[in-house]
Amino acid sequence: MRRVILLLVLANGANAQPCTTADRTCLERLPLEGGKFLLVYRSSPLTLGNAAVERVFILVHGLGRDGDVYYQSAIAATREANQMDRTLVIAPQFHSTNGERCQDKLEAGEAAFACRGWLDGLGTADAPLSSFAAVDQLLHAVDRRQLFPALKEIVLAGHSAGGQFVQRYAATNRVDGHLSVPLRYVVANPSTYLYLESWRPVADPGAACPAYDRYKFGLQERRGYAAKMTAEEIRSSYPRRAVTYLLGELDTTDEHNMDKTCPAMAQGPNRRERGLAYYQRLQQIFHSTHRLYQVPGCGHSGDCMYRSESGRKVVFSN
After folding, report:
1. Which residues make Cβ contacts (< 8 Å) with residue 90, sequence separation at least 6?
2. How far is CA 126 from CA 106, 156, 195, in A?
3. Strand, helix or coil for residue 316
4. Which of 113, 120, 69 is nearest to 91 (CA)?
5. H-helix or E-strand containing 245?
6. How far apart are CA 238 and CA 289, in angstroms?
7. Could you tell me if 158 and 132 are in contact, meaning their C-beta atoms sit under 8 angstroms apart?
8. Which residues contact 17 (CB under 8 A, 6 or more apart)?
9. Residue 225, helix vs strand vs coil
10. CATH 3.40.50.150 applies to domain 2-316
11. Alpha-carbon Rg for the chain in angstroms
12. Phi-psi map region of 287: left, alpha, beta (phi>0 left; psi -120 to 50 alpha)
């Protein structure tokens, strides 16, 4: 009887129309440890299942913590790729209340994340939960064969601050390789990268910039979530993970809140140059299997990047 009920639920999920509006209609509460929850926009309920879903596409918002805007971009890209019928689209919402520029209104029981630490997986005394641990929970929630029996892959993507999030999560998580399906990462236009060594494109930054190789910029002095793997484990695993970088060909200014601190400037003058230097170094020294695409006509815009031909190809045509 339980099997019959489950089959009926899965069939109904496959036939239901996707939820595509970036409002409360498409919000769901993802339970986290400690009794808190993370709000996520999703195209179908995570707990009901859908026999048609073959791919989960998760798009992480930028510094403005505007998950609704990124959900709209993810839905548009999925529609334009003609993949809505077999894709579960998700955009997590990392709210924060502990910074001058982070005064989000929380629902009762909603988790608050560190104002700037959410994009690095770091917590603080008043916001101790790691956003990276929350994504661990999200990945486990969708990696359920009884609910998504046709699932073939999960794509975790981000732009700008969300690109930083995905790049560092890709390097430091211990979930990859322990899911039932492959996990791919798409890193678009991040301001900075987590380097695996002390080399930087700017020669000898250490003399004037002693923090250039500390986490979040390097592997020194890692703490919290990022410290659960050793530096050698990260150096060994990250170059082999399924990571693709998207760089806007026009993202060559220092605008849009680009990090201009000393450790960041050691990585290059702008996001495009930083991405090219980082990718080339990974290829030369670590022989990485990563891929990189430069996206014509796009500057620092997540909507442009993921709705572009290159962006859709990377997400939907593995």
Report:
1. 40, 41, 42, 43, 56, 57, 58, 59, 74, 138, 142
2. 14, 27, 28
3. helix
4. 69
5. strand 242-248
6. 9
7. no
8. none
9. helix
10. no
11. 19
12. left
Q: Which residues are registered as beta bridge partners of 93?
A: 39
For the chain, what are the domain ranges? Answer: 2-316
Each residue of 124-173: pLDDT tens digit?
888 899 999 999 999 999 999 999 999 999 999 999 999 999 999 999 99
Element of type H or E holding 87: strand 87-93
| Rounded Cα distance, 60 and 50, in Å | 22
Contact (CB, 8 A) for 225 and 274: no
Q: What angle do CA 145, 42, 307 make, to 5 degrees?
A: 110
| 290 CB neighbour count, 10 Å cutoff | 20
Say what the pLDDT of residue 13 is. 59
Per the structure block, which two tokens stand in for 172? Answer: 């430091």
Structure tokens at 252: 């060559």
Structure token digits, residue 89: 């689209």
In the sheet that holds 153-159, the strands lie side by side as 27-31, 37-42, 87-93, 55-60, 153-159, 183-188, 242-248, 291-295
Could you identify the residue written with the tokens 């008043």?
Answer: 126
What gap in Å lies between CA 200 and CA 73, rounded to an integer? 33
The pTM of this model reads 0.95
Query: What is the CA angle 300-40-57, rounded to 5?
Result: 60
Neighbours of 81 (CB within 10 A): 19
Q: What is the pLDDT of residue 4?
A: 43
What is the average pLDDT across 172-182? 98
Give tens-digit pLDDT for 3-53. 544 544 555 556 689 999 999 999 999 999 889 999 999 999 999 999 999
